[in-house]
Amino acid sequence: MTEQLRWERARWLQDTPIGMIFTMGVVLSFIIGAAIVYMILANDVSNRLPEYATLKAMGYSHWALARIVLVQSWLLAILSYLPAALISFLLYELTAGLSRIPTAMTWERFWGVLGLAFLMCSASGIMAMLRLWRAEPASLF
Question: Would you kindly state where each structural domain of the chain is located, as residue ranges?
Answer without folding.
Answer: 34-140
